[in-house]
Amino acid sequence: MPISWANVDYMWHTVVDPRIGDDYGWGAALDPNDVTQGTDCSGFVGYVIKAMLYGPKMTWDRAFWTGTFAGLNPGDVGAFGLVCVEKNKWPADAACIVAIKQNPDPSNAHMVCQVQGVDIESGGNGMVTGPRATSILHPQFNQWFYLPGPILPKPGGVVPTPVVDSLISALRSKGLGDQQIRLIKAFSKVEGNNPAGNPTLGFTDAQLGGASDLQSHVDALVKQFSDRASVAGLFPQNGSDQDQAEWIARVVGQAGSDSDWQGNAQPKDYVQRVIAAMQSIPVEPQPIPVPEPGDFMSALSPEEQRALYDEIMGGRKSRSPLHVPGEGIIGDLGRLEENTDGSVHILVQYLLGVILRSPQTLAELDIVARNTDPEQQGGRRIAQAMLKLIKMIDAEKGADKTDPQPTPTPNPTPPPPANPPPIVAPPDPSPNPPYVTPANGVQSNISNLNTEISSLRTVLSDLSRWIRS
């Protein structure tokens, strides 16, 4: 049953494309005059099928529900000519593949479809296509159908183009997260496209050996993230638009300088232009895999799953009370060992500041000691105590050099009595005891502190070995 290219083009660009990002609407029907009205899983699939079969002549009422196909087995033909088939047994020229999770409880049933290799879904992420949609091969599904094809090409051999953000797909394939993708999409708007219509991402085709395809430009940008890490630092996960725009400006050498790392003249307002582009782009949340029935995740709502995912995968701030104000994100779960700085940083600042008297560390301690941020008052007190300890040590060293040791006071000789008694040799006088620093003195406190630091070193060393193993 050949499917007209015009109908498929209508399906992508009239039915699907304008509604990507709309909210899931249980039991709702799409409105041809309101592209903000969403529908549910089976509703979205039904509209895809009707558009492919009838094109602009389709009606806008719902086509079917998941329960419409309950009880059908491989070989059976269901609504709209959909043929039931075993998993992965559909023909290569199938126009559309439908995957269904049949369940007696309609609230736990689901349906997705795939056209031209692109998955289409209405679910927890809203109405989505491509990598954000659940795959038709996901293990939750237990029933499959296909709409017989093939899809006929337009005269001249042109096949309708699926609606899917190829830049997002390419960036996700490199392991980039939601916030990085949003920033790069804004950055690509500022940089523009090459003659082939693909984002340059800061590189001309000539710089890439003549390559004009999207993947080559994405690969070059991701490599530059690594090559410029010593200059730009870590991506400021959960930072402000300003923080993230400044970061990518450092990556590409456009942080307010007259020219970039390649010597090209640069606009002075580059960061502001990236921020303006970012504010027009929402964060694209990565799809959360649908759990198997009985999995503990199945008891969580999509919002709870998203919150759990963000908590686990999101960036981490320093837990050290001595971190400098405005330090921001220090890493994520993949850098667990770095996050031990909540304990190690105090020890390092003590060694560098109190023991070695590093000028930079002393300046940092002074900044923290004068900080009025309510969330850093613990660090403020520790920094003040370290600075006070330095003064006490210096004062004691000065006292050791100038204060004389106490000397014994001679006993006065009593006057002779009127009738002197026989002269008897007195016993040898006992020597004065040596001077002993009081038990609660500064030297004793320093000694105790050094002992505690040695113990802390041992604990931290054991912890580091455990983390690495």
Sketch the topology as an H/E string, one letter per element: HHEEEEEEHHHHHHHEEHHHH
Residue stretches low in confidence (pLDDT < 50, at least 5 long) are 284-292, 428-442
Overall 3D shape: elongated
Q: Give the oligomer, counting copies of the same chain as homo and different chains as hetero.
A: single chain
Kindly describe this structure.
- With 469 residues, the chain is of the alpha+beta class.
- It has three domains: 5-147; 166-278, no CATH class; 316-401 and 444-469, no CATH class.
- The protein contains 13 helices and eight strands.
- The strands form two sheets. It has a six-stranded antiparallel β-sheet with strand order 1-6-2-3-4-5, with helices on one face.
- A hairpin with a 2-residue loop joins strand 4 (118-123) and strand 5 (126-129).
- Helix 1 packs antiparallel against helix 2 (41-54) and helix 10 (341-355) crosses helix 11 (359-369).
- The protein is elongated and about 100 Å long.
Primary descriptors:
alpha+beta, six-stranded antiparallel sheet, two-stranded antiparallel ribbon, 469 residues, elongated
Provide the fold topology.
Elements: H1 5-16, H2 41-54, E1 83-85, E2 96-101, E3 110-115, E4 118-123, E5 126-129, E6 143-147, H3 166-173, H4 178-191, H5 214-227, H6 229-232, H7 241-251, H8 270-278, H9 302-313, E7 316-317, E8 329-331, H10 341-355, H11 359-369, H12 377-402, H13 442-468
Antiparallel strand pairs: 1-6, 2-3, 2-6, 3-4, 4-5, 7-8
